[in-house]
Amino acid sequence: MSPYLLLVIIIAYFALLLWVAYRTGKGSDNESFFIGNRKSNWMLVAFGMIGTSLSGVTFVSVPGAVGKDSFAYLQITLGYLIGYIVVAYVLLPLYYRLKLTSIYGYLQQRMGQLSYKSGAWIFIVSRLVGATARLYLVVNILQVTILDSLGVPFILTTLIILGMIILYTYEGGVKTIVWTDTLQTSCMLLGLIICTVYMLNHLDLSVGQSLTAMNTKGYTKIFEFDFNSPGFFIKQILAGAFITITMTGIDQEMMQKSLSVTKLKDSQKNMVTLGFILLGVISLFLYMGGLLYLFGESEGAHFTQAIVDGLPKKEFLLHGKDIFGDKIFPEVALNHMPPFISIIFIIALISALFPSADGAMTALTSSLCIDIVGMKDKPWDTKKKERFRKNVHLLVAVSFLVMVIIFKVINDNSMIGLILKLAGFTYGPLLGLFAFGIFTKYKVHDKLVPYVCIAAPIISYFIDKYQVSIFGDFKIGLELLIINGLLTFFGLWLIRKK
């Protein structure tokens, strides 16, 4: 299919986003950029949050991972559901009761100013890393599949996409993000359904027959019962629960949207509804992943083993080209399906890109202005606050550009695994801080808190690096997040005040 036509479609889609952003942001005050204006409909917020929770990584990496891990990601997703319930009935009541402008204000009230600043900085680093990793994946796919053939360099592609995001988040606030995320989530889910239906028809299989074929190939295995394996089901479910508690419940971006809902009960409905919908949607992504590998085999693809840098590497070769992992969905959709499916795939892919990136930019700007600079308490007039906020927003965009280039250098084959791994290091201290604040009544020596928050991830890194020497056959997986949180909790316990 002509890359020029795909480029025109991307531009038209972006123009629609700008129109929606203009209509929803028109007349809204700048304070809607922050938590505080609780006027959003809970169902609309829930639907918009699906897009933020899924992102382009889920759209591409989760189906691609079926070739390696079968349906094992469903174990983590079951943990996600538990985590959303905990967030709804433990954290949300706390945030609403305290009427927080920033959720990290809780740490200030509970432990002190440096604890508050530490929590905010950890969030900023965590969200920056996670959001830019997701952004890189989609930008790289667009680059390889469309823009390389047009001679457009990778850095220019990144700049243009970041410019697009800035244009429709620059003037708007949380309301704008909720509406644009809802539009994008609808397009992404529609693309998922259409691609799934097309492959079933092409393979001439019913849903039941396709599941039988996947089971024969070993794709439908969900639970791992080997206690020593990093994929052991209890480890995965626990990790999924704590990932949600940290990446949603103590994440400024996600709570920014939830706290825009007027009533606590409606916000809790939003959170629990989100958990059940995500369980269903991710199940459908995994099912589509199985279909992709069946489709690839029907086109002549086969699995093989290669040696790369002295290590065995699994490959899925189609006409001599490796399409294993993150590469299978773009390759099949763009080169082995009809043009209208290619168009739908591109629209769904960029729809998966924007909700994660725009919300992260908004939340990072909010946290830097409120938590780090303390703009709310500055004796500035409205125009100066607005000018400062926009300058910070541009600074966040520049940091996105730098991080995307770093991920381009890393070029990991499975971004979903890398993102969850990085979350274990970056979100662990936040988990420990909030757990200590909620489950103990101790105060701490506030000036020592930043040292604890730095030490815990460093110790976690060495535990992970030398886990074979420490634990033998027992393998640590995503539960590294829990270990990191426990280390932070223990560190805070050591510096508690009597």
TrEMBL record:
Please name the Pfam families in this protein's record: SSF
One of the record's GO cellular component terms = plasma membrane
Record GO biological process: sodium ion transport
Q: Name one GO molecular function term.
A: symporter activity
Keywords for the protein's UniProt record, in alphabetical order: Cell membrane, Ion transport, Membrane, Sodium, Sodium transport, Transmembrane, Transmembrane helix, Transport
Where is this chain's protein located in or outside the cell?
Answer: Cell membrane
The question of whether Cytoplasm is a record keyword is answered with no
InterPro entries assigned to the protein according to its UniProt record, in alphabetical order: Na/Glc_symporter_sf (IPR038377), Na/solute_symporter (IPR001734), Sodium:Solute_Symporter_SSF (IPR051163)
Q: How does it sit in the membrane?
A: Multi-pass membrane protein
UniProt key word Cell membrane? yes
Q: Which residues cross the membrane?
A: 6-22, 42-66, 72-98, 119-139, 151-170, 182-200, 232-250, 271-295, 340-370, 391-410, 416-436, 448-464, 476-495
- Family indicated by similarity: Belongs to the sodium:solute symporter (SSF) (TC 2.A.21) family.
Entry protein name: Sodium:solute symporter
Species this chain originates from: Chryseobacterium soli
